[in-house]
Each structure stands twice: as structure tokens, then as C-alpha cells.
Task: structure prediction
Amino acid sequence: MRRPFIAGNWKMHLTRAEAIALAEAVAQKAENFPHVDIAVCPPFVYLEAVGRAIAGSRVALGAQNMYPESSGAFTGEISPPMLSDLGCRYVILGHSERRQWFGEKDEFINKKVHAAFKAGLRPIVCVGEQLAEREAGQTLQVIRRQFEGSLADLTAEQMQQTVIAYEPVWAIGTGKVATPHQAEEVHLELRKLIAQRYNTEISQQVVIQYGGSVKPDNAGELFSQPDIDGALVGGASLKADQFLAIIAGMKKGQPSGGR
Ligand code: PEP
Result:
């Protein structure tokens, strides 16, 4: 049975004091949602402080990126063991902003995924089509290519531990959310791809989040879809009340497709 998982991607926002206050507010209420796994992913420089703020709570710590080498002359980069050392359990990889602004390609993302596992981190791997690709009817083709490239050569056990975030690029930070039907279609396709490469049982165990303008008023409908197991939340994760309201949108017994 898959456990629902909702993570907040704080991107390059907040002061240190604001990050601590937000983390404490989420941690305080997290006990109310024992059926949902919760994580927050602050900027690197606040990881330690946020880690302290959520210590002993049900909220896990995640990072937003990393470099795929363990150490070395890579000025300005952060290694997977450094993240583990700070108490991170998750790391977001291949976010569309990394793909778009920093030129990250599937092959490089795949290196990071393998490096994350080596350091004991669970990767949250983002895939998603651009608006022009959707309009050209290429959505599933793009998803297949990103799945094959960024998730290449994983063992069955690693696949089970991987979280996939389907984030249509046109829905990120735009206020335009995918319809539950549009999102479910891609989630189902991802599950089919996993089943083809591994087997049905493994495909039923992988947690697949939706991301893209998730808000308290649309979360419930998205979460009611059988293959949507939670969300990667950007803007709305910066306000404790909104993030908690999104978490509250995940009802006990969901996702209904989980076995
Ligand atoms: C994200 O950054 O992964 C994201 C989904 O952002 P937003 O919720 O703001 O669209």
C-alpha cells in the first residue's frame, strides 16, 4: 500500500527566521495527519536550522538539488553525503526550473539519482511537459523520454524508493492547474512504464506526486484520483495554513488506487 506524500518546495524564498517559523508551524500540526508523509525542502543554507525546527516531528527534511559527486573541486556545489549529514531524507532532482534555467538533461539527472541512493537519500524526480509539447499532443512521449532517461538503470528496490513528481511545466507557478483527468492520465502512464520495466506489483508501490499550482481548493479533487499519491507544492507551501490545508485534502484511505 502506497503512503500519501506531500512535500513543500520552498525554492529560493524566505529569510532564516521565516523558514524556522514556517517549519515549526508545519511540524506542530503534522501530528493531525498520521496517514500522510510530509516533507519540507528549504534552500540549502537553511537546511540545518529547519532540521532543528522539525526535529522529533513527523516532518522530514528534503533538499532541492545536489551535485552527483561525493566530494571534490566543484566550487559552489553541494554533495549528496553533505545532505545526508544534515539529516535530509529526500532530494528533489530534475525540477523543471533546473532543466530550464540550468540546462539539466535527463542523463545528468540520472547520475544524480544514482548518487542520491548511494548517499541514502530518496530522490523526488520531476518530469513534465511544456505547454507547446502538450498542445502538439506530445505529452506522453515527453514523459516516456524523461522516465527512460532520468530513471535509467535503477534496481527494482531503488525504483520502489523513488518518488516521481509529475509537474507539467505550464502549471508551475502559473495558477493554471492540470485537470484531475489530465494529471491522472500521466500518472497512469508512468505506472504503466514502471510495470513494463519491472512488474505490476512494483508499479503499484511507487509514490507519484502531482505538482503545479496545487492549492487548498484544488488539492482534494486531484487527490481523489486513483494514481495521484500526493503533491509537490511550491508557492502554497510557503504559508503554513495553506500547506496544512492541502495536506488536509488527502483523506484517509486515499489514494484509492493504492494496494
Ligand atoms: C514546484 O515548484 O514544484 C511547484 C509545483 O510550484 P507551484 O506549486 O508554485 O506551481
